[in-house]
Amino acid sequence: MTRHAWFNCSAGVAGDMLLASLVDAGADAVAVGSILAGLGLDDYALTFELTQRAGVKSTRAVVALHEHDDHHHHRAWSDIRAMLESADLPERVRARSLAVFAVLAEVEAKIHGVDVDDVEFHEVGAVDSIVDIVGVCAALEVLGIDSISCGPIGTGHGTVRTQHGELPNPAPATVSLAALRQIPFVGLDDRRELATPTGVAVMAALADSFGEMPRMSVTARGDGAGALDVNGRANVVQVVVGDVVVNAVGDGQAVRLLEVNVDDVTGEVIAHTIGALLDAGAHDAWATPIVMKKGRPAHTVHALCDPALTDVISRVMLNETGSLGVRGSIIERWPRARRESVVRVEGHEIRVKIAGDRVKVEHDDAAGAAAALGLPLREVLIRAEAAALLK
What we know:
Oligomer: single chain
Number of domains: 3
Shape: globular
């Protein structure tokens, strides 16, 4: 069984609505705030208030900024990445938050014609947007959500005003984010910005699939309110939480397989490339030996990633190997439900992943503990696995 959240965004989606829906579904607001405190930001106050939208009881998330916060409305992607990497956050919260901002950076880079490392966020770089995005990831963690899906997203029409000026509605960034994952949009007769870049980015980065609600045993639901009470329509994002059975049959999770053939790099470079691909967000990365024309020995470097991260992963692959091109295809995978935990071996913390009765110990943690304790690595691995199975 895996804990799943399906989001009904038929009335639109925004970061604060997603956060509020998860709190309304049972995510403890204090626990969410405690995780957000790890960011080290102190220029805001996050509150949740009960309200109604079209007669539906819902929760609204409000981020109040301190008056001196004006200078924080313009942040570079590199600054946000450094902040998240150094923040005191649970690892899955950090990884999910980085994935959302990475997708936003990719889209902004294409729209403005700059390198991804030179992207500067305007509205999305403000404290309230950072709190919304990391807050959603924190609430998912508090609820123990392992997988996510989303229904069609409602959008408005006309134009919207941004710091760049008057733009089409939905905004270019919003549409570009949808194009990354082929997210289904549904136009509504409303001139407001119903789907924001922040809200769509969360779904583009974190949702495993888009469409109807999967078969699941429902355990909770929540409604996150937008700022306005719209006549004739509940201005809410609804989340449905429950348990689904993940089987290696039927529809799987769509992933991108990227590959390059290389015959002019050392084994050390290939090993470094694999590490860089994993650090960039790839689900997995590996190399296989091959024989090329004229009998030349070579390797194929492979990476499996979310389709939304295709540009990021392919750039790393090209830069690190020096290859002149990369090929790719969309395939499916059926990941087994797992959970992450931390065990202690003689005072040393070691991360583990647990799937059923199988335990995978984080090698670097175990190796560090073995060196510090003067024990064989295999001994530390055995102790960590035993400790994990006892939890």
